[in-house]
Design brief:
8 helices, Chorismate lyase, 2 domains, homodimer, Arc Repressor Mutant, subunit A
Chain lengths: 254, 254
């Protein structure tokens, strides 16, 4: 089968025309949005509609529909007389190396943490189990709203093993990653972490805290970090604003 | 600072009472939802409100608010007289090994692909660049709606290097992963892939194709896969339904 356009649909006037245009618009939007997020338009201006229509061998209508999708996502703004401007900045967060947020985003701006709660708590059974401790054991709980360059990025709920967490309660939790504080305080390195990543919609509470629209897409991460060669010491439940963070990874076939 | 409850807030009657209850409900919901998603309730029934209130040393109101959040997310249903039942099944997809969907989800049910388009196309510049090819070079494009056990899981747009993709157009794309077909056809293994993961809201087109609500949270994955020790051959733009997939990974500090 050979197709003559970069997108294997013909925009016919027939009954399938609208669906085909929607499919083409979706494909164009997927490619453009990755360029936007990856910073491929260094001056922050997208090519004009005619140029894009030529590049994708698509109609201006399909291109317009693609740009509308990017605008609806908050990635670009369309300014009459000027064109389509990139409005989003997403931070890259690598999954291959276990890093704290301030370490990872150093070049993007200062990370500050609003500490919403910090103190010793008896562990709920489901949490205690992750640490290999009996239900009701003391843990240290830290809840932080994390900002980059002043803008809310994530809401982090952290449980720490008591011997690890207690000394940290006197430290500067506002300006430091927990990982850095743990390593400084124990004189040991962290090792392996297991994590899960999900896309979820913001419930009203999380939306309010993150100053995101209700229902906005968030990355929900659960991460259990261990001391190097050792026991689990740090269990985090994190909600990142989806419009401000991209996770990146390298993976191998075998 | 020592706190006497598993959640470091007191539900006072003062002006901060509602906020504190919301914070506690959020923490309870985060812990419970991970248990639900991880299948920690094998009979599919959550403990009753009183038991949860005792475990989390929280009020029944806070527990109810947490269960409401899980219900709003579609993870549980609350049946009067019976309790809170798990209604969601999320598939785990490992990020540490490069796997096709059918390989990964073998034990969860058959993966079938509705092939929405398949054929040769001239590459848009942004796509050609990823393959190290000139703009307008021929590539093979495959667009698939992928289902597990009959339910839509993802919409995948795939560009393949022409020598790799062309022989696959005659293969059974409905019942096979592209990775498996590439390796069978070339006699070579795939090697490294670079990927990005984002949380995005479903636009109307993607929502319709995936039969998800408009605005539903999706995992958007872009993945460029290489032949073992070799060139990039497979570029995919994937949108997974957030309510049906969890990504998992192990990561190391150094």
């Amino acid at each position: 089968m050979t197709l003559t356009s970069p997108l294997p649909y013909t925009e016919t006037a027939g009954p399938c025309g609208a669906r085909r245009r929607a499919d083409r618009a979706h494909t164009i939007a997927e490619i453009l949005r990755r360029q936007v997020v990856a910073g491929a338009f260094p001056d922050g201006v997208l090519p004009d509609e005619l140029t894009l229509a030529a590049e994708y061998a698509a109609s201006r209508n399909a291109v317009r529909q693609a740009l509308d999708a990017l605008r609806a996502e908050g990635l670009v703004d369309r300014v009459p007389g000027t064109g389509t401007l990139v409005t989003a900045a997403k931070y890259p967060h690598g999954l291959n190396r276990l890093c704290g947020l301030a370490e990872t985003l150093r070049e993007h701006g200062p990370v500050t943490n609003e500490v919403r709660a910090a103190g010793a708590v008896p562990a709920p059974a489901a949490v205690a189990r992750r640490f290999g401790l009996p239900a009701g054991s003391d843990l240290v709980y830290v809840e932080r709203l994390r900002r980059v360059g002043g803008l809310p990025l994530s809401l982090d709920l952290t449980y720490l093993a008591p011997d690890i967490g207690t000394p940290l309660l006197g430290e500067d939790l506002v300006n430091n990653d927990l990982f850095a504080l743990i390593e400084r305080s124990t004189g040991r390195r962290l090792g392996v972490a297991e994590l899960t990543v999900e896309a979820v919609s913001a419930d009203p509470h999380t939306a309010a805290v993150l100053q995101a629209p209700m229902g906005a897409a968030l990355l929900a991460v659960e991460r259990l970090s261990h001391l190097d060669g050792g026991r689990p010491v740090d269990l985090e439940f994190i909600r990142f604003r989806g419009d401000r963070l991209t996770m990146t990874a390298r993976t191998h076939r075998s």
